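dumping this here before i forget
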Amino acid sequence: MRFRCRFANAIPSRNGRGFSLLELVTVLWALTFVILVGVTTLLGAVKIEQAATASFNRQNTRNRLADQFRTDVALATSAPDKFGECSASTAFLILQLTPGNYVLYRWEAGRMERAELKDAADSPNWISLGGHFGGAEFSRSAGGLLLTLRLTESTNSPARNRSTEIAAALGGDRR
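structure:
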């Protein structure tokens, strides 16, 4: 005599027709974890790329400013103390290229600006040389032949402020 269980057909057989709920939840959890790690990695890469781009742009701005400053100082015959109503200071530099031809540099409102003038009667047309530095300062050596531009880049910590000095000889190689 054979016994037959009434509930034998109530238990589904595993013959490859589907997945259990536990298996689906496990796969979804693993996919969520992989996507979370991928998004976090992608956001980190984007922040690093933005920081690298900003650093590259700041370096390019400093290099262009340094090239322009060195070229102007090398072409200059003198650096007078006065030009019209303007006086040279740590925030203002006057360069005389030829008689009647002047180049002015000024540090104002966090930007370095440059103007070329033919004579004192002209009004300066200021052109921004880019960059938003924390500070800039012009200085001269004791003999007056070496001009220095010191750019200071502000950081969150005053102890870590970076300074770049750009020096050029008045008259360049001609002296």
